[in-house]
From TrEMBL:
<protein>
    <recommendedName>
        <fullName>Probable GTP-binding protein EngB</fullName>
    </recommendedName>
</protein>
<dbReference type="InterPro" id="IPR027417">
    <property type="entry name" value="P-loop_NTPase"/>
</dbReference>
<dbReference type="InterPro" id="IPR019987">
    <property type="entry name" value="GTP-bd_ribosome_bio_YsxC"/>
</dbReference>
<keyword id="KW-0132">Cell division</keyword>
<dbReference type="Pfam" id="PF01926">
    <property type="entry name" value="MMR_HSR1"/>
</dbReference>
<keyword id="KW-0131">Cell cycle</keyword>
<keyword id="KW-0547">Nucleotide-binding</keyword>
<dbReference type="GO" id="GO:0046872">
    <property type="term" value="F:metal ion binding"/>
</dbReference>
<keyword id="KW-0479">Metal-binding</keyword>
<keyword id="KW-0342">GTP-binding</keyword>
<dbReference type="GO" id="GO:0005829">
    <property type="term" value="C:cytosol"/>
</dbReference>
<dbReference type="InterPro" id="IPR030393">
    <property type="entry name" value="G_ENGB_dom"/>
</dbReference>
<dbReference type="GO" id="GO:0005525">
    <property type="term" value="F:GTP binding"/>
</dbReference>
<comment type="similarity">
    <text>Belongs to the TRAFAC class TrmE-Era-EngA-EngB-Septin-like GTPase superfamily. EngB GTPase family.</text>
</comment>
<comment type="function">
    <text>Necessary for normal cell division and for the maintenance of normal septation.</text>
</comment>
<dbReference type="GO" id="GO:0000917">
    <property type="term" value="P:division septum assembly"/>
</dbReference>
<keyword id="KW-0460">Magnesium</keyword>
Length: 215
């Protein structure tokens, strides 16, 4: 029986080179957005990254672009409260606010969640959402809430497992199995997983190639 949601196959050398070139130039911060009317013109393809607070999203974006300080990493969950736009080549790379803020005021959480939902359902140039899941924990209920929103919005999302270097053998397989079981309930889920470690650089060239191949 074929496994559902296998790890993505290794890209061809030409695909890896296309991905490398996309992120080899300067990646520029465009703006941080706190409301839908502040979004830049929808004049190019964009991909975005979504994930729970402390899932390693800022570190992944920094590794992807090769710029350590590009996305702001913080030990305080939910510190980055804006939709942050960057340009890489001829596309937008979008860093969404972290979700699952246990210690933030209710009103602030509701505002972030409303902005997140409006963006995900209302951005015509959004081609794919990458949902980050910490390999140490697997998919949680709050992740599935975002997946359900993406289902309703008919926006394709692909799961990136972060921090895979922190697990080995059976522990990693158990986390992957948990995540695959969650994804099976979501029709908008792309059928392959991307396994990454920002610290080690694992999976980063593959992710670049995948982004470069999205049209």
């Amino acid at each position: 029986m074929e496994m559902r949601f296998p790890e993505v196959k290794a890209p061809e050398p030409a695909e890896l080179e296309t991905g490398r070139l996309l992120f080899a130039g300067e990646t520029t911060f465009v703006k941080g957005v706190v409301a839908m009317d502040g979004l830049p013109p929808a004049d190019r393809m964009e991909i975005c990254f979504a994930g729970r607070s402390n899932v390693g999203k800022s570190s992944l974006i920094n590794a992807l672009t090769g710029r350590k300080g590009l996305a702001r990493a913080s030990n305080t969950p939910g510190r980055t409260q804006e939709i942050n736009y960057f340009t890489a080549g001829d596309i937008y790379v979008v860093d969404l606010p972290g979700y699952g803020f246990a210690n933030a005021p209710v009103a602030v959480v509701e505002k972030w969640q409303r902005l997140l939902k409006n963006y995900l359902s209302g951005r015509p140039t959004l081609r794919r959402v990458f949902v980050l899941i910490d390999a140490r924990h697997g998919a949680k209920a709050v992740d599935e809430e975002i997946m359900s929103l993406l289902d309703r919005s008919a926006v394709t999302f692909q799961v990136i497992m972060t921090k895979v270097d922190k697990l080995r053998g059976d522990a990693l397989e158990a986390s992957l199995a948990k995540t695959r079981a969650a994804l099976a309930k979501h029709p908008a889920a792309f059928p392959e997983l991307i396994l990454t470690s920002s610290e080690k650089g694992d999976g980063i060239p593959t992710l670049r190639a995948i982004i470069a191949g999205i049209s």
